[in-house]
Specification:
Elements (H helix, E strand, L loop, with lengths): L22 E2 L5 E4 L5 E4 L4 E2 L1 E5 L2 E5 L3 E4 L2 E12 L4 E2 L6 E9 L2 E11 L7 H7 L4 E2 L11 E6 L10 E6 L3 E3 L1 H10 L16 E4 L2
Parallel strand pairs: 1-9, 2-16, 11-14, 11-15
Antiparallel strand pairs: 3-7, 4-12, 5-6, 7-8, 8-10, 10-11, 13-14, 13-16
The structure holds zinc ion (ZN).
The site of zinc ion has 4 residues, from strand 8.
InterPro entries: Alpha_CA_prokaryot-like, CA_dom, CA_dom_sf, Carbonic_anhydrase_a-class, Carbonic_anhydrase_a-class_CS
Keywords: Lyase, Metal-binding, Zinc
Pfam families: Carb_anhydrase
Length: 208
């Protein structure tokens, strides 16, 4: 399958100025203090999953539910970006996983940073995404802390669909170098550059 060309991303077109990804900041974004996180994310502890090759890269399909601001979203698909798309105070991470949720007509992208370290030796992700291991607990992608950023943007791949509620957890999940390599092989350098804020509000919901 031919994949979209990230070298030509300057030519990608969206019908909105509020695009994704963006540079996030714990200092400059609008800080909202919370007594506890408003996010409840549940995945079956073990589930079979499937994948398909799409022009925007391999997409994985699994079950999951997100309860967020009194709405229940269902997981539609998820995928990886080799090199994070968002950054926090100019810091980028090894990779980023995007869970795409729907609730009726609303689409929400739930993004989690992955940071590789040689000290971490578990290879859950490469076992799952490369081999035909069909049992997966998506909980491996969740950090303990659920502080998060929220803004309205687009999908980060053409056709850059607009009005996407975007939630980005601020705490990265630690992965092994082997897992980082596996993501790189399947999704080589598929990260879009950060886009201008164009005066949109960006919130940082912190429990600290
Ligand atoms: Zn994505």
């Amino acid at each position: 399958m031919r994949h979209i060309n990230y070298e030509k991303q300057d030519d990608w077109y969206a019908d909105t100025d509020w695009q994704s990804p963006i540079a996030l900041s714990k200092v400059d974004n609008v800080i909202q203090k919370l007594s506890k996180s408003q996010i409840s994310l549940t995945f079956p502890t073990e589930q079979a999953f499937a994948f398909e090759e799409w022009e925007i890269g391999r997409q994985y399909f699994a079950d999951g539910k997100l309860l967020y601001k009194d709405k229940t979203y269902n997981l539609v698909r998820f995928h990886f970006h080799d090199g994070s798309e968002h950054c926090i105070d100019s810091e980028f991470f090894s990779a980023e996983v995007h869970f795409v949720f729907r609730c009726e007509e609303d689409t929400l992208v739930f993004a989690i940073f992955l940071e590789a370290t040689s000290k971490f030796q578990k290879h859950d992700i490469s076992d799952v995404i490369c081999k035909n291991t069909k049992i997966l607990n998506l909980g491996i992608f969740l950090p303990k802390n659920f502080d998060y950023f929220e803004y309205v943007g687009t999908l980060t791949t053409p056709p850059l669909m607009r009005d996407i509620q975007t939630v980005v957890l601020s705490t990265p999940v630690v992965i092994s170098n082997q897992d980082k390599q596996a993501i790189h092989q399947l999704f080589p350098n598929n990260h879009r550059q950060t886009q201008s804020l164009n005066k949109r509000p960006v919130y940082f919901y912190s429990t600290e």
